[in-house]
Amino acid sequence: MRTSSRFIVGRLIDLAVVLFGVSIIVFMMIRLIPGDAVAIMLGANTEITPERIAELEARIGLDKPIYVQYFDWIWGAVRGDFGTSIWTGRPVMSEISANLWPTLELTFLSVLFGAGLSIPIGCFMAEARGKGAEVAVRIGAIAGLTIPSFWLGIVSIFMVSKLLPGVSALGYVPFSEDPLGNLQRMILPVIALGLPMLANLSRLVRSAMLDALSQDYIRTARAKGVPQRGLVYKHALRNALIPFITSVGVATGYLLGGAIVVEQVFAIPGLGRLVLGAIAERNYPLVQASILVMTASFVMVNFFVDLLYAYIDPRVSQ
């Protein structure tokens, strides 16, 4: 078996082990949430009797030993069946699919915003090292790391409501129905979610570029008369992108988690609002499936980043 094949198989095994561990953690943590879940499911307007509690527990499988509940759930998950929502009676995957696209769009646009702008900003800071403009940009990057996304979102909504009262900053419109309206409503959430990523990655690109620009091959290229812009964007940037790609993968996973808070602030009907509502309702099947899907997405992103990293630098797979 070739080295690259062994590398991929090894990463797939790691992926399976991580997902298995995550599934156990998710399953157990949901059952540690305080409160009588069955009583909450029955509702305040229903007479709660031992018979009704036993009936509901039998219907959703809570009367079985906990290890049997887990294996029933994970076996269904492997087959794509996460059960049915306790409150709506619809398949859990249908509930998730209906709320998945806004979260994916918000995350994707935030990655484009954060990762796309970080490269030119980071290169600028490396090229203009020590100058006043570079210091100002670096201070701005540090500020971007310290500002919480939810606070930035709230402030941006307030500013838009005062300065542009006719512009709608809340809610969500599908891109297929109104492309301009969709992008208009996504601008502020994308900035709020992607700004910390932009600040972090731009500082990373700056450090990697400074290291690359100090290498011997750069000095040789400069001695041969290669223009400064060519040194920065053609020679140094190629090597600086390796740690950048790894960080983009990790940051993308964290953006999926941060999207939960941003969706609440901007009233976006994504997975974040779905998960929070399901937790409040003790909707076990929906909470478990939603968190597992989001976690699996995080793990899969990093899996593909590992493959891309190995492709760019074959020494990684040795």
From TrEMBL:
Protein name per Swiss-Prot or TrEMBL: Peptide/nickel transport system permease protein
Cellular localisation: Cell membrane
GO CC terms of this entry: plasma membrane
Superkingdom classification of source: Bacteria
Membrane-spanning ranges: 12-33, 106-127, 139-163, 183-201, 241-266, 286-312
Entry-linked InterPro entries: BPD_transp_1_N, MetI-like, MetI-like_sf
Keyword terms, alphabetized: Cell membrane, Membrane, Transmembrane, Transmembrane helix, Transport
PANTHER family (alphabetical): DIPEPTIDE TRANSPORT SYSTEM PERMEASE PROTEIN DPPB-RELATED
Topology of the protein relative to the lipid bilayer: Multi-pass membrane protein
Record GO terms (molecular function): dipeptide transmembrane transporter activity
Phylogenetic classification of the source organism: Bacteria, Pseudomonadati, Pseudomonadota, Alphaproteobacteria, Hyphomicrobiales
Family: Belongs to the binding-protein-dependent transport system permease family.
Gene3D superfamilies on file: MetI-like (1.10.3720.10)
Residues of the ABC transmembrane type-1 domain: 100-305
